[in-house]
Design a protein that fits this description.
single chain, 122 residues, alpha+beta, two-stranded antiparallel sheet, 4 helices
Length: 122
């Protein structure tokens, strides 16, 4: 019995099941359900990624473009999405790049502070 599905269907199913691709090392990945308990501090995880795995952040045309170490963009996006911030109109991630869309450059600048400034409370 063969069933065919589009990649977007599989992607949506993985997202609905909270399954993400997680790097084991620079070239190996596994799919897993991240630990997500009510006590998960997504902000702390994002800041840790900022300290060790985010290489560059650029704001352009109301978008926050975040370049990460290979394999960490989807993990970053997962934790940012979990915060359900109203400033984010949409997001997309690849292997080493996350794009966060906002309504203006000013909103993107405020979002950068909100996500990556340890003195800013969410």
């Amino acid at each position: 019995f063969n069933e065919y599905m589009s990649l977007s269907t599989i992607t949506n199913d993985l997202k609905a099941l909270h399954i993400t691709k997680v790097p084991l090392d620079s070239s190996t990945y596994v799919f897993q359900v991240p630990e997500n308990t009510p006590t998960t501090d997504h902000s702390a995880i994002i800041y840790t990624l900022y300290q060790y795995d985010i290489q560059k952040i650029v704001i352009s045309n109301h978008c926050l473009m975040i370049h990460t170490s290979p394999g960490f963009a989807q993990k970053l996006n997962y934790h940012i999405d979990a915060l359900e911030l109203p400033e984010i109109l949409g997001s997309v991630s690849g292997n080493d790049f996350t794009l966060l869309m906002t309504s203006s450059n000013q909103c993107a600048q405020q979002l950068q502070l909100k996500l990556f400034d340890p003195h800013h409370n969410l």
